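In response to a reviewer's request, we include the raw inputs and outputs for one of the modeled complexes. The two entities were modeled together in a single run.
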Amino acid sequence: MVEVTEPTVVIVGAGPTGLSAAAELRRLGVHGVVVVERDKEPGGIPRFTDHQGFGIQDLRRSMTGPRYATSLVRQATALGVDVRCAVTATKLADGSVELAGPAGIEVVRPRVTILATGARERPRSARLIPGDRGAGVMTTGQLQQRAMADRPLGRRAVIVGAEHVSYSAAMLLRHQGASVVAMVTEQPGHQSVAGADIVGRMWLKAPLMTATKVVEIIGRRRVEGVVLEEMSTKRRRRVDADTVVLSGDWIPDNELARRSGLEMDPMTRGPLVDASGRTSTSSILAGGNLVHPVETAGTCSLEGRLLARALAAGLADDPRSATGVRLHVRAPVAWAWPGRLDPTAVPPHVLFQLSTTTTARHAVMRQGTRVLGTTRLRHGRPGRSLRIPGTVAASVDPGGEDVTLEVES
Amino acid sequence: MRPAITEHDVAVIGAGVVGCAIARRLERAGLDVVLLDARGDVGDGTSKANTAILHTGFDTVPGSLESTLVTTGYKLLAEHAASAGIAVEPCGALLVAWDEEQDAALGDIRDKAIANGYLDAAIIDADEVVRREPHLGPGSRRGLEVPGESIIDPWSVSLSFAIEALRGGATIALGREVRGVEAVGDVHQLLLDDGATLRARWTINVGGLRSDEIHRMFGHHSFTVTPRRGQLLVFDKLARPLLNEILLPVPTERTKGVLVSPTVFGNVLLGPTAEDLDDIGDTASTEDGIAALLDAGRRVLPALLSEEVTAIYAGLRAATEHRDFQIESHPSERYVCVGGIRSTGLTASMAIAEHVAGLLAVAGESTEHGRELDATIVMPPLGETQRRPARDAALIERNPAYGRIVCHCEQVSAGEVFDALRSELPPSDLDGLRRRTRACNGRCQGFYCSTEILALADAAGLDLDPLGWSR
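The model returned the following C-alpha cells for the whole complex.
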C-alpha cells in the first residue's frame, strides 16, 4: 500500500544537524516538519559517545553524548517535530521522497528535503589494510556500540589515528580495563587538543607512534598483532594485540545525495552547497557532516539552525538552487565549506581542514588575484577544524571567477 | 565409551558447492547420504571466495572434461537458479584488448569458443567497445563479446543444494574433519577428528584444497593440490554504473590478467590475483596483491579507483599439476575422487553431480532420479535486481519485520535476519549470516548494524559474535 502525504519539510537524519534544523523550523512557525531516522533511536553519533563536552556551543552547558542526543530529541519533539525512527529514505526524485519502514513504503512530496545523513569512519577495507581477516578489527563507532551492549572488547588494542575520536576510543578501552599498546598515526604529531599526547601517555598509558602506519594485520581467526612501519626508515616491527581500532578518517554518508544526482564536491565528497545548505537541486538542502567530514556536534547543530532560518525566510518564494561562486582548495587544504560562496548567504565562518601537517601560518582566500581575506592558522594539523570569518563571503564578486583557499607562510 | 558408528550409503567429503551438488543429486536417487566438512558451514572454503560468474565455458580447453561439464552445468545451474529464485544477471562479458598481442589473440579465442560449442562470441571494433563501455580507460582496442556470460549469487547456490539435500533426508555433519580411512569388508570406515567413526558403502572425495590428502588416505597419488591464492577487491555500489557487463582480460602467454565484474549484489569486483602458495590456510591479502589489482583496475576503469573498497578477500583455488578436472572412479573400492576443480566449479557443479551419479550407475548403483521434493526450494531474494523484502510493500504489510531495516548499507531487514537464524541450515558465524542475508556486507562493514544483528542472534540462541559472547 502506497500512501501519499505532504509534509512541508522532510529532514533525513536525526543527528545534531537534522534535529536542530527541525526544532528551529518549528520555532519559526513552520508546520509539517518531519525527521526520518533509519536507526531505531534518534540522536545520531553522540548517542554512542559516552563522555562530557557535548552541548557547549548550542545548548550552553556541557553534557555527555547520550544526554546531549536526548536533549536534542526532547527539544525537537516538544516543539512539535514529527521524529520517525526505523524509517529509511530510499529514494529522492522530482521533489518526492520514498520512505521505507515497518509501516510500509510511503512516498511523500515535501516542499523541501534536507539531507543530514552525517559521516562514518572508513572501515578496514576502504583503508586497504592488508593481512589476515581475523576478528577484532573495528571502527571507534563499533567499539562504542559494543561497549554499550556489554560485548567483549579485547585486552590489548592498537588504535589507528590520533584525532579527538581516537583519544575517545583510548579512554573507553582504558575504562573497560583494556590496555592501549599503541596509538599509531601517519602524521608527525597527534591531531587532538594541545596536551592530548601527554594525557595519552601519562593517564591512558597509550604510547603515541607518529609517522608510522599499519601495513599488515596478523591473526587468522582472531587478531594476534599488527605490523607497523616507521615511514621515514621503512623499518617494520610486529606489535602483539587482539584488537585494532580504526578511528577517524571520515567519509560522508553520501549515497542518497549521489543517487539523487546532486552536484558533488570532490574534496568533501558531500554535495556541493552554499552557506544556506542549498544544493544543485532547488528542492534539496544539505548540511552537517554530510557536507564537511567532520566537525563537532555543536558546529553541526548551529549549522542546522542556520539552514532552518534561511529556509524559513525563503519558504514563501520558490526555493532555488545554489548558484554562488565555487570555492576551491589547494593542498594541503583538504576541503572547505561552503563549496559555493554567495554574498547573499554569508556563513558565520568558512570551515576548512588540512590533509597533512603544515608549518604554514596563514590561510588566504583569493578571487583571481584579489585577496578576499587572510587569517592566522590556529594550528597546522590535519583532521581538525580551522575557520576564516564568514564575512569574506560578502566581498565575493558573484559574477567573478572561482575563489581559492590556500595556506601560506 | 566408544562413540556410536553411523552407517550411510554414501559419504561425501567436502561441503563446497560441488560436494553439496553431489549430496543433493545422490540423495534424490534415494541413497542415504552424509555430507561432511571440516568447516562450520557449507560453501565456506574455496566456494565462498570466487568471482561469482556463471560461465558459458567458451574459453575452456576443447574436448576436456571441464569443457563438457561447464557447458552442461551452465544450463543446469541457470535452470536451478531460476526455479530457486537465486539471483542471476545475464549481463554478458566483453574481453577487451589493450595491446597488439591481445588484439591478435581475439580471433583464436573466438575459434576456441566455437570448438567448445559456443557460437555467440563475436569480435567488435574499438569504437564499439568504447561505446558499450564509456568508462574504459584510454588505450582500449578491439573486443570479443560473450553475451552468454552471467553473474550469479554464489553463496545461495551452495546453500540451496545443501538445504535440498537436507530436505531429502541427507545428514549434514559440519565441523567434522576426516582424519583417516580404513576398509572393513566392502565398506569404508571414516575416522573423524572427534573420535567418531562413520561407515559408508561409497565415498566421494570432494575435499577441495585437501582432496589430495584424502586421495592419499585411499592409497592414490595421481595429483597434488597447490593452493592458488586469488585476492579480490569489492568496490562500493556507487561504482556499479561504471560498467555494463563483465570486463574480461585477454589471456596471453605472459599473464592471465584480472577481470572487472559487476556482482548480483550491485557491487563491482576487481581481481583475482594468482599466487601459488604452499599453505592451504593462507587467505591473507597482501600489499603487493592489492597494489597490483589497483594498477590493473586503474587501466581498465580509472574512475573505479575513486570509489570506496567495501571488502578485500582472498580465496584459494585447488589447483593441481593437471589442466583438467581430476575426476576418477575406483568402482572396486567404491571410491570416487572429484579433485582439481578449478574456478569453473561453481558453474559445473550440477553437471559434476550428474557425472558422479553416472559413475556410480556404471558401478551398479541405482542413481536414477527417484524422489522429487514436495516443493521447490525458494532462496531469499538477495540480488539487487530482485524484489528485496524491504522493498516489498505487500510482504511488509503481512510482517512489519521485513520493513525494519537493520543493515542500512545492504538494506537487509530484521525479518530476513530472523529467517536465516531460524532456517534449517543456520549460520555458525557472522560470515555465515552475511552470506545468507548480505547483512554487514556493505560499505560500513558492520559499523551501524553489527551490534544489533548480534543481539538478534543472541535472542535466537545463536552466538555469532566472533569476539565471544560474555566478558
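As requested, we also summarize the result in words. Chain B has a mean pLDDT of 94. Residues 389-459 of chain B form a domain with the Arc Repressor Mutant, subunit A fold (CATH 1.10.10).
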